[in-house]
Amino acid sequence: MAKATMRSGDAPVTETPAETPQVESDNVITDMKGRKITLRTLSVIEEMRLLKMLGEYNSSYYNFCAQVARVAAIDGNVIPVPNSEREVEAVAGRLGKEGVAALMSSLVTAAETDDKGEKDAIKK
Q1: How far, in Å, CA of 114 to CA of 78, rounded?
Q2: What's the Cα-to-Cα distance from 27 to each of 4, 38, 71, 103, 110, rounded to whole Å?
Q3: What's the longest Cα–Cα distance across the chain?
Q4: Strand pairing partners for 78?
Q5: CA atoms lying within 13 Å on the CB side of residue 40
Q6: Which region holds residue 95: left if phi is over 0, alpha if psi is between -120 and 50, else beta?
Q7: Which candidate, 108, 109, 105, places its Cα nearest to that of 97?
Q8: CA 20 to 30 Å from 105, out of 21, 24, 40, 56?
């Protein structure tokens, strides 16, 4: 059975946190604590394994877990792709509310950007 490894050493809390996460590149966001969260794109096989691992859960839970599984590093500390539900929970615990909020906000921003690009393409 796989073990989840927890690492400590969060970055200090900044004095003036931003309300929305700062996007530094396509795959790095900064949460309200100032932590840099690096995201990965899951391969088809990784997504299939995640589906198999989570079993009969509803789609909202799967989508949340899939986004948490995209976290590749927090402040440079590498996080492997989770192999169990407990490992997904461990990553979510490390992210905390601030990290999850930054992750979800980055998804909304990405969706809005995609929508704008599609609308511009339709106008042409």
Answers
A1: 28
A2: 24, 6, 9, 11, 11
A3: 54
A4: 73
A5: 18
A6: alpha
A7: 105
A8: 56
What pTM was computed for the model? 0.68
Query: Residue 77: helix, strand or coil by DSSP?
Result: strand
Please name the amino acid found at residue 118.
E
Helix, strand, or coil here: 78? strand
CA distances 9 to 18, 28, 106, Å, are: 21, 19, 24
Tokens read off for 17: 């946190």
pLDDT digits (tens, 9 = 90+) for 47-92: 999 999 988 777 889 999 999 999 999 999 999 999 999 999 999 9
Query: Which pLDDT belongs to residue 17?
Result: 41
Residue with tokens 């990784």: 46
